[in-house]
Design a protein that fits this description.
By secondary structure, this protein is mostly helical. It has a domain of 48 residues: Orthogonal Bundle (434 Repressor (Amino-terminal Domain)).
Length: 98
């Protein structure tokens, strides 16, 4: 039988891998996924602004290693630092209702 015709239960796979919704394990995995997602957004924005990590770091008064840790999802910047990073790249942060 061909696998292309099988129905894949993503919810069951997520539960197996990260625990059921509402469990501590699932909440931690979700938080980590958001951190990695946001890190990728910042990395892409920096590249689109044609800045090196060192240039961005210099603009916000940090070191290159700090920018690297943010972009790898190892460090989550404070809100004020996020605003400084966005401004240094010529961007704004918008908060709006979903």
């Amino acid at each position: 039988m061909s696998r292309k015709n099988e129905i894949y239960d993503v919810s069951a796979e997520l539960a197996r891998e990260f625990g059921e919704i509402g469990t501590k394990e699932r909440e931690e995995a979700t938080a980590k996924a958001w951190e990695e997602y946001n890190a990728q957004i910042l990395l892409d924005a920096r590249k689109n602004a044609r800045l090196t990590q060192a240039e961005l770091a210099n603009r916000i008064g940090a070191d290159k290693g700090y920018i690297s840790r943010i972009e790898r999802g190892l460090t989550v910047p404070t809100v004020s630092t996020l605003y400084r990073i966005a401004s240094a790249m010529g961007l704004t942060v918008e908060l709006r209702p979903i």
